[in-house]
Amino acid sequence: MKRLYYFAKSLTSVQGITTDLRLAGIGENRLHVMGNDSSAMAQAHVHTATPWEETDIMHSGFVGALGGMGVGLVAGFLLAGADPWGMQLDTGAIIGVTLFGTCFGAWLGGLRGVSSRSHHLTPYLDRVEQGDYLMMVDADDEVQASKVEKVMQGHRHEAEEAGREEHFSPFD
Questions:
Q1: Whole-model pTM above 0.85?
Q2: Which residues contact 14 (CB under 8 A, 6 or more apart)?
Q3: Which of 118, 157, 145, 135 is nearest to 19 (CA)?
Q4: Planar angle of CA 40, 42, 47, nearest 5 degrees
Q5: pLDDT in tens, 78-132
Q6: Is the CB of residue 109 less than 8 Å from the CB of residue 60?
C-alpha cells in the first residue's frame, strides 16, 4: 500500500479535495485528515485521523509482541527443563508461557505506543501544529495513486505535496 501526504491551508480546501477524491473513486476510508481543531473537522464532516493513525500503538504493540514471544519462549523452555515443582512440564507449558509472553509484550508495547506520536507523521507535525491540515491518502496500487495525484494537480493552489511512502504499513 502507498500513502501520499499533502498539506492544505484551510478546511474548505480539504472539503473540496475530499469531494473530488470521492468522485474519482477514492473512498473516504482512504483519506485521513489531521489538524489542530478536531471539533471543526467533525462539524465539517471530514474523515479525521484516528488514534490508530496518530499514535504508534500498532508498531509498538507489534514490536512488544515479538519481544514478549521471544522472552516467553525462552522462559517456557527454562521452566520445562528445570522441573521447578517436581513435575514434568511438557510442550503445553512452553506454549502457554510463550502465549502469555506474547500477549504481555503486546500490551506493554501498546501502552508505550499509545502515548507517542506515529513515527510516520514525525516530519509533518510541525506544520500541523502551525495550523495546516495534513491529508493522508492511501492507495493500493499505482493506478489509485495516479488518480489521487491527478485530483491533487487540480488543487495545486490549495494542496501542497508533502511526501510519499511507497510501502506503507502501520506495523513498520
A1: no
A2: 8, 33, 41, 44, 46, 133, 135
A3: 135
A4: 120
A5: 988 887 777 777 888 899 999 999 999 999 999 999 999 888 888 998 999 998 9
A6: yes
